[in-house]
Amino acid sequence: MKKTTVVQPYDLESINIKNWVTKSNILIESTYKLSLQEQRILLIMASKVQPNDETLKTYRFRAKDFIEIVGNKKGTGFYSYLKEIVNGLQTKILTIKEKGRQRNYNWVITSIYEENEGYITLQFHPSLKYLFLELKEKFTSYQLENVVRLNSVYSIRIYELLKQYERLRKRELTLEELRHFLAIEPTKYKQYGHFKSKVLAVAQKEINNKTDIHFEFVEIKTGRKVTSIEFIITSSSSPALNDASAIKEKKLELNQHSFELEGNSNSIQNDLVDLGVKPEKIEWLLSEFTKEHLERNIRYTQDRLITGDVTHPHSYVVKAIQKDYAKLSHESKLLQSKKTVKRELVPDFMVAAKEKQRTFNESTLKDKQELFFKEIGTQIEFEEKLLQFQELKRMLVLSSDEPNQEEVKKAQEAGLQEVIRNMEEDLKKRQELDLEPRLVKDFKNKELKKIYKEFLQSKILNKT
User: Which of 107, 129, 148 is the last residue of a domain?
Assistant: First the structure.
């Protein structure tokens, strides 16, 4: 008698909008075109992927659970509409460009709609594993609830692009890059005014009202034409945004930032904010002193802050700018140098030898620097790496559904230690290559700037 094999169905999965979605930044910056409902279904699938999964699993959901999250389409039977979406997902293509090569993937390999039972079974294509699993760096995480509430496909994509840079607080994209990421056809929203009203304004309203981040944007022009957008990103949960005076301060920052872009200035205002100078004082300093005057005295204050010579930087930097401490210090050093340096008569062959050795040393140092930056990356990439390691530690500790207070504390400490460890390795590598340490002012992220400053101070104290 022939035995009949019964295939057991997959376990039913619940949908929890508090679940975390974690994606490689390669996926976030890839090109794909999906409908709003298709986006939501794939995001729900992504929220089921766990950091410790070894493969991309197959998930089976109740159709009615999907309907509650994805939403109903007026005028049609939604079960039939959902079936069309599920079947259509297998034909949708994801395009990934890496190292000069373009690869096209299907999003899902398994797509089953059980009409009589009211179940949906889905599985990501196995080739996408490296975009969701075993992510050690360059990834972005957020809770599902932040995206399933958005009603525009462009809002979802812009949210991910900004969430990726949340810790750095800023992201600049050319209009061409933004249109590419959003998969907007060349013939659609050709006029910037249409693009701004239909894409940027809609995304800004939705993201600011419904997600955990808030953004403003500055239009960057080439001549009279807008060619790039700089997004200013803040966390919606930040206490600063709940305070009326802080909102006023933020607006002042945005207005001044726009002024800085027009004058091709550096982030002078941000440095003054970091030093604790009040907004009204910043406005006065910017109007009274030149860019070079401000920059040299801010650097002078920052350097003295590292060595521990300054205890009240907010007042010290204002006095330094008013009295030009940096210039006075420089002139004092020059005068001292003239008193101590003796001119000696040196044979021509010795001068030539010294010049040759100096050129060799400079060339060697340059080669070392190029090699270092090739291996380590730019300052922005270094900061991204620190923040991503910190996020990974936090995700691993908070992998349980309801972490307690002790686990949260452990997560924060683990993330901090990971950041410090990477700073330690970076400093050691620089010393081996005879390179100067990174400067505190080089850090754009305020949190990392504070950690690095304390890290350097601890090094100085240990030496003494």
Answer: 148
